């Protein structure tokens, strides 16, 4: 029997003709989205002739495609049509020559997804890394590469180390592949942009109250109020107290996001906004590894740490934007954003696994393989105390012009990015007298005690890292329409990135570098009909050594790492435009990856490559049945390396990932839904010594809808699956157990 690889099967699928692409049921129920058949088909001819008989137009005249939405509420639609992440201005997804996923607010509300991490479960190719040392907060991997500094808020880099919430988000937009053309440094696997809610001229107030098992309570408020005929004010706020199926874990957070917009619908619009958020959470550094896997013998609720550990985070972000439309062809905009992030951490983590209860007991290594019983093993607890302060100010000026040169139509975007960033990280060493430096306690692997930190703990000030960076980027991107069916996208960007770091103790004491880089992007789009789009694209990006304003000794003299991506894909709008189907083949390669030599120095002679296939679906199968999901296949390999990892799989890069969420309206009032999230096995570190098992998690929901209120029930992890959600390479490879079965009840009330 002939066997077909996933990539070969994907190639055939991309170019296969969808047999039922524009077939609409002849007796479609009210509310079904209907579009006319593409011009030139027999159905289009019949439709145009029928229209001529009805309105008196000439026989054979072709009418434009019409999309009719019946009794559906756009706020409840799973199918996004536009994204600002692919071109920094709202662009139809079919006109972006790269894979992009937009997770709309309707999906998040249906899933009761309140955290940034929960929201990203809807995006194939994203895996979560646990907090570690100086990397507190949301640590994301995208298509096998770290995206911690590739998270954006309304188009600006959201570089702070904090746990983000969805209370003020309209959507989360993800663009895959190197994209330094628009975003500057980073974006190896892609970028993630949080899109904030905007004031509108329609008054409305929404209040949501939620309660759940494990002492989970949450309230959100969304108030929108017009001020004049062309201005409005909107404020979103939340507060929550969350327990967990994990022992000891708890968090208390709140936030507010006010925004005012002037000149709505006029040539000049001015928007002022802010995000103020406070988190007080229990840090969770997971469980150690044992015999090449996370130590599942300790049970899913076991917590390693002290009861008075805490992470305190404060975020203040302020933005101002002015946009002036000179005419329908020329628009100029300028936006400034200032952010301050502070993180105060008192935390402890399970470090080495020991073969005895004494500080002199030997430590396991290389995956912690042992024949000893888990009851004979112990864990060294270390401190991760630190105070982190991030400041950033960004300014972007963009000019969009539309014009024609002969038969070519241009949509040209030019811009200038300016940035200034500072970073400070003061670490501390915590030691209990009688134990080795930076050792707080030695606890049993099984049933560690839940107690406060020792009263005689000695805290010593450690290294203070202080960094700053200045950047300037100048870019231009042109989308050229050639007739009705072809578009060519091309752009170039020049960056200057100057950064320095000073360490009080660690090496290097001081380091500075100035990087210059030119990024390019190109793509060709073929759209034979109004429901089909096929593309090929190429893009590049760069990663300086001081990209995150932190530096490993030995890398200070290295030039930036280069990344490039090739992609081919298709985007279809099926079932009368109600259902979007996307798929792509991609190849991302880091051609001069940093690799460590035997003597501890680093050189740029490594090579990391991730190839794969991605499938996405979003929209309505019928007017009652919605779906949102995706699948990705990632074949990651460290092609070249000097540190012994050549031939291995990059850390936190599973081969297969699947996410699917679907809802069905049984009646106009009653709705049910659910779906799985699957992540295949992955390695905690590039040495591939600790493998984290794959898992499938199932969620479900039921809701009762009325005009002014909803009652919604969500069951998270309904089978109570024990799996590991986040991984980190440190200490041989640690993993964080996921939340167990959780029941949530939500009441939403709307004031019109």
From TrEMBL:
Record keywords: Cell outer membrane, Ion transport, Membrane, Receptor, Signal, TonB box, Transmembrane, Transmembrane beta strand, Transport
Gene Ontology CC, one term: cell outer membrane
Pfam families: Plug, TonB_dep_Rec_b-barrel
Subcellular location: Cell outer membrane
Domain (TonB-dependent receptor plug) ranges: 93-191
Signal sequence range: 1-21
Domain of life: Bacteria
Membrane topology: Multi-pass membrane protein
InterPro entries named in the record: Beta-barrel_TonB, Beta-barrel_TonB_sf, Plug_dom, Plug_dom_sf, TonB-dep_rcpt-like, TonB_sidphr_rcpt
NCBIfam families: TonB-siderophor
Protein family according to the UniProt entry: Belongs to the TonB-dependent receptor family.
Protein name: Catecholate siderophore receptor
UniProt source species: Paraburkholderia rhizosphaerae
């Amino acid at each position: 029997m002939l066997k077909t690889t996933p990539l070969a099967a994907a190639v055939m699928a991309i170019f296969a003709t969808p047999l039922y692409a524009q077939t609409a049921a002849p007796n479609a129920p009210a509310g079904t989205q209907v579009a006319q058949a593409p011009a030139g088909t027999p159905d289009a001819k019949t439709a145009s002739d029928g229209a001529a008989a009805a309105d008196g137009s000439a026989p054979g005249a072709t009418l434009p495609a019409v999309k009719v939405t019946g009794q559906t509420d756009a706020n409840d639609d799973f199918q996004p049509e536009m994204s600002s992440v692919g071109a920094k201005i709202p662009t139809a997804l079919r006109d972006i020559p790269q894979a992009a996923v937009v997770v709309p607010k309707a999906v998040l509300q249906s899933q009761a997804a309140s955290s940034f991490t929960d929201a990203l479960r809807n995006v194939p190719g994203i895996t979560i890394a646990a907090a570690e040392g100086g990397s507190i907060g949301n640590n994301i991997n995208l298509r096998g590469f770290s995206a911690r500094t590739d998270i954006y808020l309304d188009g600006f880099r959201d570089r702070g180390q904090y746990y983000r919430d969805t209370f003020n988000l309209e959507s989360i937009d993800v663009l895959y592949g190197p994209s330094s053309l628009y975003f500057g440094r980073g974006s190896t696997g892609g970028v993630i942009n949080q899109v904030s809610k905007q004031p509108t001229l329609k008054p409305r107030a929404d209040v949501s109250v939620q309660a759940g098992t494990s002492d989970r309570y949450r309230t959100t408020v969304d108030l929108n109020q017009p001020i004049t005929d062309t201005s409005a004010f909107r404020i979103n706020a939340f507060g929550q107290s969350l327990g967990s199926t994990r022992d000891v874990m708890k968090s208390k957070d709140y936030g507010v996001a006010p925004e005012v917009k002037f000149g709505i619908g006029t040539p000049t619009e001015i928007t002022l906004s802010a995000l103020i958020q406070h988190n007080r959470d229990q840090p969770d550094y997971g469980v150690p590894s044992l015999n090449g896997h996370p130590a599942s013998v300790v049970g899913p609720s076991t917590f390693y740490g002290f009861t008075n550990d805490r992470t305190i985070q404060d975020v203040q972000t302020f933005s101002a934007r002015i946009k002036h439309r000179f005419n329908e062809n020329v628009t100029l905009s300028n936006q400034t954003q200032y952010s301050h992030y502070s993180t105060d951490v008192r935390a402890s983590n399970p470090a080495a696994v020991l073969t005895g209860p004494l500080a002199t007991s030997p430590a396991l290594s290389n995956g912690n393989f042992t024949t000893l019983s888990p009851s004979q093993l112990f864990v060294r607890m270390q401190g991760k105390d630190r105070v982190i302060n991030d400041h950033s100010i960004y300014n972007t000026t963009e000019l969009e012009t539309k014009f024609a040169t002969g038969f070519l139509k241009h949509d040209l975007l030019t811009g200038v990015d300016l940035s200034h960033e500072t970073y400070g990280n003061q670490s501390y060493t915590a030691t209990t007298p009688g134990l080795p430096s930076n050792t707080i306690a030695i606890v049993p692997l099984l049933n560690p005690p839940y107690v406060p930190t020792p009263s005689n703990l000695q805290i010593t000030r450690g290294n203070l890292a202080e960094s700053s960076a200045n950047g300037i980027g100048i870019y231009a991107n042109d989308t050229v329409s050639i007739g009705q069916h072809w578009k060519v996208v091309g752009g170039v960007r020049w960056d200057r990135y100057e950064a320095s770091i000073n360490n009080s103790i660690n090496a290097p004491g001081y380091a500075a570098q100035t990087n210059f880089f030119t990024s390019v992007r190109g793509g060709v789009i073929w759209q034979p009909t109004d429901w089909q789009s096929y593309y090929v694209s190429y893009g590049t990006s760069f990663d300086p050594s001081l990209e995150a304003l932190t530096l490993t000794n030995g890398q200070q003299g290295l030039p930036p790492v280069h990344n490039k991506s090739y992609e081919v894909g298709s985007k279809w709008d099926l079932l009368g435009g109600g259902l979007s189907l996307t798929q792509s083949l991609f190849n991302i390669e880091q051609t001069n990856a940093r690799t460590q030599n035997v003597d501890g120095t680093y050189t740029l002679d490594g090579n990391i490559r991730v190839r794969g296939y991605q499938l996405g679906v979003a929209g309505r199968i019928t007017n009652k049945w919605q779906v949102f999901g995706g699948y990705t296949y990632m074949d990651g390999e460290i092609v070249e390396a000097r540190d012994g990892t050549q031939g291995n799989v990059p850390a936190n890069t599973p081969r297969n990932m699947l996410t699917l969420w679907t809802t069905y309206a049984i009646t106009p009032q009653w709705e049910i839904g659910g779906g799985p999230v699957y992540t295949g096995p992955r390695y905690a570190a590039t040495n591939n010594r600790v493998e984290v098992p794959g898992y499938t998690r199932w969620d479900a929901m039921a809701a009762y809808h009325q005009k002014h209120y909803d009652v919604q029930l969500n069951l998270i992890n309904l089978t109570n699956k024990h799996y590991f959600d986040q991984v980190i390479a440190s200490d041989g490879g640690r993993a964080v157990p996921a939340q167990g079965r959780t029941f949530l009840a939500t009441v939403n009330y709307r004031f019109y």
